[in-house]
Amino acid sequence: MTLFGLDMMTLYFWCLIIFGGLTLIYVLLSDVVDGIFDVLPIDPALIFSFFTVFGATGYLVEKYSPLSGLLVLAIATVLALLLVILLHIFVFVPIKSADSSLGYTDDDLKGKLARVIISVPKDGFGEVVLSIGGSTVSRSAQSFENEEIPYDTEVLIIDVQTGVVSVTPYEKVLENYNK
Fold first, then answer.
1. Which domain holds residue 12?
2. Could you tell me if 167 and 128 lie in one domain?
3. Which of the residues 16, 57, 87, 118 has the least number of beta carbons within 10 Å of its own beta carbon?
4. In this predicted structure, what is the pLDDT of residue 1?
C-alpha cells in the first residue's frame, strides 16, 4: 500500500522521526513557545505524541506482522488515540490543575486561618504559616489590634498590605461571635 507516492512503512518511519523530534523539542522548549499555541484547543504535546505513537506503531506492526495495510493503519490510529487519551487524563490534566492551585493573591489570604511560628510582638512583626492550594506558605505578620500574639497561636488573617498579613487570635474572634 502506498500513500503520497511513499510506501507505508517509509511513511510510518518518517512520521516517527519527524514527530518524535518535534515532541522532544516541544517538551524541552514548551515554556519558551507556550503562548504561540494558546489558540489551539488541545496541547500541542498531545498532537505530537499522537503522530509519534502512530508512526512507531505503524512501522513496527507493518514490519513484523503479515497484516494488511488498512488494518495496520487502523491499529496504529486506535493505539495512538488510546495512548494520547490516557496521557491527557493521567498526565496533562493533573499537571494543569496543580499549576492553577499554586497561584494565589493577597486577597485570597483574607479570612484564612494560620498558625504563629514566630511570636508577634506589640508594635512589631512576627511570622505565620498557612496552607493554601495544597502548599504551605509563610508570611510576615503583625497584630491587627496591636497586641502580642504568642507562638503556636491559631490566628485569623484580617487584612494584607504590602505582603504583611494583619492577624488576630482566632479564639478571640470565636468569643466575640458567640456573645
1. 2-101
2. yes
3. 118
4. 67
Checking if the pLDDT of 117 tops 90, the result is: yes
Assign 2 a pLDDT band (cuts: 50, 70, 90). Answer: low
H-helix or E-strand spanning residue 156 = strand 154-161
For the segment 28-41, the average pLDDT, to the nearest whole number, is 75
Verify that 145 and 84 share a domain, yes or no: no
Task: Identify whether residues 120 and 85 lie together within a single domain.
Answer: no
DSSP letters, 41-93, are SS-HHHHHHHHHHHHHHHHHHHHH----HHHHHHHHHHHHHHHHHHHIIIIIH
CA atoms of 19 and 76, how far apart (whole Å):
15
In the chain, the amino acid numbered 55 is G
142, 166 in Cβ contact below 8 A? yes
Structural domain count, the chain: 2
